[in-house]
Design a protein that fits this description.
Elements (H helix, E strand, L loop, with lengths): L6 E4 L15 E6 L3 H8 L9 E3 L11 E6 L6 H24 L11 E7 L13 H21 L4 H6 L16
Parallel strand pairs: 4-5
Antiparallel strand pairs: 1-2, 2-5, 3-4
């Protein structure tokens, strides 16, 4: 049985210039027998505007650990669904399989763990005639691998957060809070 009960990670990878393909996955990893497993099972139903789906790499290729993904933005168009369930899901799936291959995720616990991933897909992507799908893949792949690594290593640590408290601030606080 897994001793991984509740680990979280997140990452941001910025888009290429002129694209809206920033990726910001947030991941929960835990035992199928614990709170993560309960949350995973409770996500089996759908919520209007926030499609939930198993992460698959392609038809008949569901990833392990079993992973449920949903979007942070409300879905309004079929084009958005196509990107979410296509390029983004493929990138997330590839990152998970590569994380298993590289030892970031424990292969021997793949059936004892589950993951929930909330992904950011900017609604402008679905409307952008110049969307670079390769960049959409790149940002989501890189960010997912980084989020998984951070979840499994407990990064940033409490000491790191305290050390950078006055040097790192949320971008939305520029001009709002002085450090």
């Amino acid at each position: 049985m897994s001793d991984i009960w509740f680990r979280t990670g997140e990452a941001t990878v910025l888009a290429a210039d002129g694209q809206f393909t920033d990726a910001m996955p947030e991941v929960l990893i835990g035992s199928v027998r614990g709170p993560a497993g309960h949350a995973f099972a409770s996500m089996m139903g759908q919520v209007q505007g926030h499609t939930r789906m198993f992460v698959v790499r392609d038809l008949n290729q569901q990833v392990r650990p079993a992973t449920m993904m949903t979007t942070k933005a409300t879905i309004h168009t079929l084009e958005y669904v196509d990107l979410l369930g296509g390029v983004v899901q493929g990138a997330i799936g590839d990152a998970i399989v590569d994380a298993l291959a590289e030892g970031i995720l424990p292969k021997d616990q793949a059936d004892e763990l589950c993951m929930i991933v909330m992904v950011w897909l900017d609604p402008r992507c679905a409307e952008d005639p110049n969307l670079d799908k390769a960049d959409l893949y790149r940002t989501n792949y890189e960010a997912m691998k980084l989020a998984l690594e951070r979840a499994m290593t407990g990064k940033p640590t409490v000491d790191e957060l305290i050390a950078n408290r006055k040097t790192v601030k949320h971008y939305a606080l520029d001009g709002v809070v002085e450090y």
